[in-house]
Amino acid sequence: MPDENKYIPDLRLGVRLKTIILLRFIAVIGQLLTIIVVGNILLFQLPYLEVYLTIGALVFSNLILFLMYSWNQRLSETTTAIVLAGDIIQLALLIYFTGGLSNPFVMLFIVPIAISLDNLPIRSSLILIILTLISVSILGFYNYPLVQNDMSYLINPNILTIGIWFSLLVTILFLSLYVGRLANESREVSRALKVTEELLSNEQNLSSLDGLAAAAAHQLGTPLGTISLIASELLNKENLSNEGKDDLEILIKEIARCKNIIGSLGEKSSIDDDIVNKIELHALLVELSELIRVKGIKPDIIFNENDDDLRSFTIERRSELILGLSNLIENAAEFAKENVIIKISKVDDMIQLLIEDDGDGFSNEVINRLGDPYVTSRKGNDSRYDGLGLGFFISKTLFERLGIKIKIYNKQKPDYGAVVSVKIPKEGWI
Q1: Buried-most residue among 127, 218, 259, 332 (CB within 10 A)?
Q2: Contact status, residue 351 vs residue 281, Cβ threshold 8 Å
């Protein structure tokens, strides 16, 4: 397989500034309303100066962010992590001044963790998780207790404080494992889909270039023929000098060379027929099999003896089909020891291609997960197995667009190797 890393787009992580600012202002409003309710309705005595300074720090940092970055700018990974760390510290201070773990709003520590897991890589999220756990642990032992008007203290029993701390710990760890994995898989799928789109776009661009080449061949054929005719007539003139004859002979040779180049372009594609868009199935497989020859493996293309008409069967040159098959054939060649075989037959109303190799086959651990992005498709310690497993994902994604069915399995013992079954519908797009 080609180096798949070079196709991986840079999916920028981090959160947009407007999202951060809006969430933080919602947090400010919620904190202010909570302080008003606790102080004026529930009649708890609070250290208002410290509380309002803590809330004011969040407002001030929001204003700083607004002045430093554009409204729709996506903050970098580092900046996002710093901002979320500041939010955790701000929330910890506010909880400290309002009763510690006896404050039911202590569960809000989950919010910045959830944001980090969804938008940051695990290394940054892990730092924030550790910071949160440290903050919660400190608040369990050190805090400013809530005092009612009768000067009584609202203090949780030790067993309740430990229970709250433990529940927060479990919740944060569960969130980290579950939500983190979901977010990571979502990012992987998005990245792999972008890879697919880029590869498909490249193939479509190449197809466009084929059309331009065909058009050029068609348009240049007539004027080159005219020039060649005039040059031949001038060459036959009696009063022409030897130097002039030499120049005309060179000109005629160069014109012939141009015609040959144009002729080769016209053989590959022509705007006057369906060759640009259609190709015989056998010719397509031979074309794609040249990818294998480069790796020193001679492919065998075998048509079912009862379905020999498939050899001349015409199929559309769709970008999705070409890219998908080329990925599968290259993968087979990469892991084959000596042989790659492509078998073609009819199965019901579909054309079946079996791409077989004599390699080690698919491992039991990943065979059920193939089709997910970044799952390596083979087993072993060889450096060849270190790929991201994008090839099969790309092929599967492209084939699904065309209604093509794909299946993988290993050969039955005593044979060994992998088999990829591709079933192409004869109706609809062929």
Answers
A1: 332
A2: yes
